[in-house]
Write a sequence for this structure.
């Protein structure tokens, strides 16, 4: 199984995932803006540009994780990629945005912070529900597409 195929699938998957989240935000289904959320950890002026770069880097790192999982299982397919995408979405909507991101993001609020402490971004909350009721479903659909693309790329390369 090709690591290059996993990275190519990860790039395509991140492009689709980011586009789906951005389109859902523009359509008013969610208030989540991952590139801004990631990029605003440093310079708010260039937050979205930096955030897109960081999100694509993260997409490549996760693609390597998917590749390792496909190697461990000994099989790759779009449907198995979607299954991995389900786990990825659950991780992203719980531990990643609520535990790990606040540890490294100086502006990310938590239930333990107050507004006067620092300029805060609203904490995403469980499954990112603080950014709208449709956010978990949008995130799930985007992560399923991401996983399916990595699985498809890897299957085609085999």
């Amino acid at each position: 199984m090709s690591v290059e195929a996993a990275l190519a699938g990860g790039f395509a998957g991140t492009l689709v995932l980011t586009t789906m989240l951005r389109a859902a935000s523009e359509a008013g289904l969610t208030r989540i803006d991952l590139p801004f959320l990631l990029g605003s950890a440093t310079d708010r002026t260039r937050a979205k540009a930096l955030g897109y770069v960081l999100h694509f880097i993260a997409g490549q790192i996760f693609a390597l994780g998917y590749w390792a999982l496909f190697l461990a299982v000994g099989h790759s397919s779009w449907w198995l990629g979607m299954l991995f995408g389900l786990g990825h979405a659950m991780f992203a909507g719980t531990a990643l945005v609520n535990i790990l991101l606040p540890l490294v993001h100086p502006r990310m609020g938590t239930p333990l912070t107050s507004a006067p402490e620092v300029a805060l971004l609203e904490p995403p909350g469980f499954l990112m529900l603080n950014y709208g009721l449709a956010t978990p479903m949008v995130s799930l659909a985007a992560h399923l597409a991401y996983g399916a693309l990595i699985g498809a790329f890897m299957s085609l390369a085999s």
In short: The chain has a mean pLDDT of 91. The helical segments are 3-26, 34-39, 47-73, 78-104, 135-157. The CA atoms of residues 121 and 142 lie 23 Å apart. The chain is about 70% helix and 0% strand.
